[in-house]
Write a structure and sequence with these properties.
The protein is mainly β. The chain has helices spanning about 35-45, 90, and strands at about 15-20, 30-35, 55-60, 70, 75-80, 95-105, 145, 150-155, 160, 165-169.
Length: about 170
Amino acid sequence: ELSTRAIGDADGIDRLTAAVYEGSQSLSKKFSVSEDWNTAKTNGIELTLIEGRSYKILFWAENGGNSAYAITDDGRITVNYDDYINGGFAKMEEMDAFFGTSSITVGSQKVEDNGTITLSRPLAQLNFADNATQPETGTHRTEVTFHGIATAFNPFTGEVEMLDMDKAF
């Protein structure tokens, strides 16, 4: 008898970052560019790459006020939950994010409109609800403790790094 409500509906997304990497075994970030989300949706993102080289590109869409995620120089997304533990429901909405990856080898011909990138949500959403008691007005507090949470993931390989300790929200 639990019900859920949808949060994280992408309404808070306002920035798209494209990070460009080179390397076969280990990636090395060459540069990144950020655009306003609506501008990127309308006009796309233009990248100038060197002919004859192969690249992996990470597309990361998030809320500009988000301070939890960082795009690393070796191709991972790291997350630090500390600013969000006590921020409440509204602050957690900033953590909604989407990603997509692409690989390209630049040839001798100029490539226009190399296709569409589909972004997907890399994070699970957990909803907690309890109808065992009658609703009461006022402020309510619930504490949820996770035993091991993701602290980084590699969007190119799907590899996830976990924190080996408890984290309470």
